[in-house]
């Protein structure tokens, strides 16, 4: 699939802009703060209804505007679909598919994309919440209905947390708090069912990603370092203890045990059964502490390099290679998937946002080779010199929220060229309303 055109209105620093992309490689250049990342952020928003940079949609609406609008024409084969989302600060968003009103959730799956950005180093280095967000974003692109499952899970999680706090407070005040609680029983059943679906979906995704992560890490880094990912699920507690990287690397037979457990955990009914049992076993402890101690909100993605965990041990270059391998693996999993209402030619758009500037020459060349065959690629760079010479495609220059195709700049008269040059002297920050990075905890998980 590919996007042929995108129109933005009051999105970030774009007041009104229409951009026509090509299949294959599209290169967006321009000084920092002019709108390169904002443009690809708009494309990615259509895929997940969320930003990779901020947790709130408020920052996406241009200052002083009431709403931001993203409209795109997409193609799968020769069939066009127009999708539009209206983003409001402080109230519900609206959507359209081929001009007909639709629920925002209905557009998920029409556009598929994989975005790699500098923030992705957090997948390797930051807390488990960021790694859960990585899995959940892919989960929703593969199975859009899981967005509703996750939202309902978070709602139940918050309600259950409030009840546990109340029971804990009562116990600390000397009141008799029974472990037999019908309301808690209802919450447990809901939490186990919804949490089992999420756990199973994540386990299956990790199973699909694992071989691609190992392959792409070797290709990007040029080494055989044994990159491996494993799902560390709270649903495994008491059933299966995930070994650390040093044991997995030293004892090959453990890989078979992990594979067997993954296959079992990827069954929603089995994951639900495990969670239900754990909720019963840990009820007294949860009441005592006044918080949820079981469920996918406590899971993690274990990233290994040989005998060591990647977090805390991977060098800067190794961390970049690992993050790239994860995104390229995600790209391959989406390419292979052909399910859902919008199936057919569903190869995702690949977005590389300010990536090449962070890579050494070897990694730049390897990445350029790997993405050359993609159906549509969008690459941002402050200067063209950051990109390998082998990367050729439609080129745009971006300045102050305006997008100029390279051919337009080259064929315009000298006065127009001078005006463009004059405009480049000033800057308009694309980040004035986007400080900080996305908080996965506020976007995809309820309270504990």
From TrEMBL:
InterPro entries documented for this protein: DNA-binding_RecF, DNA-binding_RecF_CS, P-loop_NTPase, RecF/RecN/SMC_N, RecF_2
Where does the record place the RecF/RecN/SMC N-terminal domain? 2-381
In this chain, the stretch annotated as Disordered covers 402-448
This protein's source sits in the domain of life called Bacteria
Q: Which GO terms describe its cellular component?
A: cytoplasm
Bias regions of kind Basic and acidic residues — which residues?
432-448
Q: What are the GO MF terms of this UniProt record?
A: ATP binding; single-stranded DNA binding
Where it sits in the cell: the answer is: Cytoplasm
Q: Which UniProt keywords apply?
A: ATP-binding, Cytoplasm, DNA damage, DNA repair, DNA replication, DNA-binding, Nucleotide-binding, SOS response
Main localization (coarse): cytoplasm
One GO biological process this protein is involved in is: DNA synthesis involved in DNA repair
Binding sites annotated in the UniProt record for ATP: 30-37
Claim: Metal-binding is one of the keywords in the record: no
Q: What Pfam families would the database entry show?
A: SMC_N
Please give the function described in this protein's UniProt entry. Answer: The RecF protein is involved in DNA metabolism; it is required for DNA replication and normal SOS inducibility. RecF binds preferentially to single-stranded, linear DNA. It also seems to bind ATP.
Family that this chain belongs to: Belongs to the RecF family.
Query: What name has this protein been given in UniProt?
Result: DNA replication and repair protein RecF
Its gene name is recF
């Amino acid at each position: 699939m590919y996007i042929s055109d995108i129109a933005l209105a009051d999105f970030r620093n774009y007041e009104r802009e229409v951009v026509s992309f090509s299949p294959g490689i599209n290169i967006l250049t321009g000084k920092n703060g002019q709108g390169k990342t904002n443009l690809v952020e708009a494309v990615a928003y259509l895929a997940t209804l969320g930003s990779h940079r901020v947790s709130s949609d408020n920052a996406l609406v241009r200052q002083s505007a009431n709403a931001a609008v993203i409209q795109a024409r997409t193609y799968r084969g020769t069939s066009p679909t127009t999708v539009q989302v209206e983003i409001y600060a402080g109230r519900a968003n609206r959507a359209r598919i081929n001009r007909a009103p639709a629920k925002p959730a209905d557009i998920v799956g029409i556009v598929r994309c994989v975005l790699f950005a500098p923030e992705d180093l957090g997948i390797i280095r930051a807390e488990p919440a960021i790694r859960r967000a990585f899995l959940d974003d892919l989960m929703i692109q593969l199975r859009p209905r899981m967005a509703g499952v996750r939202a309902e899970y978070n709602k139940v999680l918050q309600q259950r947390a409030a009840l546990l706090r109340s029971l804990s407070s009562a116990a600390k005040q000397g009141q008799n708090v029974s472990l037999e609680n019908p309301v808690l029983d209802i919450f447990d059943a809901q939490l186990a069912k919804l949490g089992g679906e999420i756990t199973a979906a994540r386990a299956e995704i990790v199973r699909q990603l694992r071989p691609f992560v190992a392959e792409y890490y070797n290709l990007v880094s040029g080494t055989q370092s044994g990159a491996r990912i494993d799902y560390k699920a709270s649903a495994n507690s008491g059933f299966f203890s995930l070994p650390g990287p040093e044991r997995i690397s030293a004892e090959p037979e453990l890989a078979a045990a992990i594979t067997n457990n993954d296959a079992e955990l990827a069954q929603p009914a089995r994951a639900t059964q495990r969670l239900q049992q754990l909720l019963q076993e840990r009820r007294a402890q949860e009441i005592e502490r006044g918080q949820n101690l079981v469920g996918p909100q406590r899971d993690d993605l274990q990233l290994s390099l040989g005998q060591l965990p990647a977090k805390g041990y991977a060098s800067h270059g190794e961390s970049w290679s690992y993050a790239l391998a994860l995104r390229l693996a995600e790209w391959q999993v989406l390419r292979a998937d052909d399910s859902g209402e919008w199936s057919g030619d569903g190869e995702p758009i690949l977005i590389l946002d300010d990536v090449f500037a962070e890579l050494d020459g070897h990694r730049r060349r390897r990445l350029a080779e790997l993405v050359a065959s993609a159906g549509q690629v969008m690459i941002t760079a402050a200067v063209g010199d950051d990109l390998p010479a082998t990367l050729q495609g439609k080129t745009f220059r971006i300045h102050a929220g305006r997008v100029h195709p390279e051919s337009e700049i080259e064929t315009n008269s000298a006065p127009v060229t001078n005006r463009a040059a004059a405009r480049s002297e000033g800057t308009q920050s694309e980040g004035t309303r986007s400080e900080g990075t996305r908080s996965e905890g506020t976007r995809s998980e309820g309270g504990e």
